[in-house]
Write a structure and sequence with these properties.
This protein is an alpha/beta fold. It folds into two domains: 6-83, 3-Layer(aba) Sandwich (Rossmann fold), CATH 3.40.50.1000; 88-152, Hypothetical Protein, Haloacid Dehalogenase-like Hydrolase, Chain: A, domain 2, CATH 3.30.1240. The chain contains four helices and nine strands. It has helices spanning 25-36, 49-59, 88-101, 120-129; strands at 6-9, 40-44, 65-68, 73-76, 79-83, 104-109, 112-115, 135-136, 146-152. The strands form two sheets. A five-stranded mixed β-sheet has the order 1-2-3-4-5. Strands 8-7-6-9 form a four-stranded mixed β-sheet. Strand 1, helix 1 and strand 2 form a beta-alpha-beta unit. It starts with 5 loop residues before the first strand and ends with a strand. The model has no long low-confidence stretch (mean pLDDT 91).
């Protein structure tokens, strides 16, 4: 047998169809075939830890490694081997600017996904995503472990 290769997969609209709201059986079969042939399978996604169990359930598969929050967390199966947060100085600069302009913000933190407040822009974004609005954390800007930031500009 030849040397195994590493295959990277995205989840949203790659493995998982937002149209059918499922992972097709053909994708599940392909993952299992690649594994059986000795390849390493990695999921790389903008999603975070809060989505890992859902991804495993939807794919009916456990990946060898996960790259989450666009690279802010890297896991080898269940073990976190790399983790990086946005520096507090950087996030505070952005939050101050957003607050001065009345812009709502949020992102992914150690507590999951959150926003600082709900306004029309927040409602518009989450209506478009056809997903529930994240938890409201008025003190979001003061969290030290923020992986990704989002500004709501619609």
């Amino acid at each position: 047998m030849s040397e195994g290769k590493i295959f990277f997969f995205d989840f949203d609209n790659t493995l998982y169809s937002h149209t059918t709201r499922r992972v097709p059986q053909s994708a599940k079969t392909a993952l299992k075939t690649l594994r059986a042939n000795g390849h390493i399978l990695v999921l790389a996604s903008g999603r975070g830890l809060e989505s890992k169990q859902m991804i495993d359930r939807e794919t009916d598969f456990t990946f060898d490694a996960y790259i989450l929050y666009n690279g802010q967390i890297v896991m080898r199966t269940e073990e976190v081997v790399f983790e990086q947060y946005i520096p507090l100085e950087t996030s505070q600069t952005l939050f101050s600017l957003a607050d001065s302009q009345g812009i709502a913000y949020g992102g992914f933190c150690s507590e999951g996904q959150a926003i600082n407040r709900i306004n029309d822009s927040v409602r518009a974004v989450w209506t478009d995503y056809q997903a529930p609005i994240p938890q409201v954390m008025p003190d979001f800007r003061y969290l030290e472990k923020i992986y990704l930031l989002q500004l709501y500009l619609t």
